Amino acid sequence: QVQVVESGGGLVQPGGSLRLSCAASGSISSIFVMSWYRQAPGQQRELVARIFRGGSTDYLDSARGRFTISRDNAKNTVYLQMNNLKSEDTAVYYCNVALQPGSRGTWGQGTLVTVSS
Q1: How many helices (H) and strands (E) does the chain have?
Q2: CA distance 85 to 82
Q3: What's the whole-number mean pLDDT along residues 73-87?
Q4: b/e 81-110 (16+ beta carbons within 10 angstroms → b)
Q5: What per-residue confidence (pLDDT) applies to 45?
């Protein structure tokens, strides 16, 4: 069984930065993909960024150039560095860890990011 814990959310002013962390633990031999999703009030959950075992990445168009995803395979941890934050980035950010291709993965509990002056 896999456990996923996010941290790093908070309140930040527009233009500011935050770094989210997500640590996976449990019965893990290797991780196929680690992803960050977000869900704003009244909105569907959307993929923000993901990073595959080999290091390739995908980004939401609105996040590309402002957000950077990285992972530490030795620590089973993924990070999301968010710069130049905007009010529309306000959401609960969730981490998903999938051990195998096609797996639904395991979700964390979410961490709230609020961008407001």
Answers
A1: 0, 11
A2: 7
A3: 96
A4: ebeebeeebbbbbbbbbbbeeeeebbebeb
A5: 97
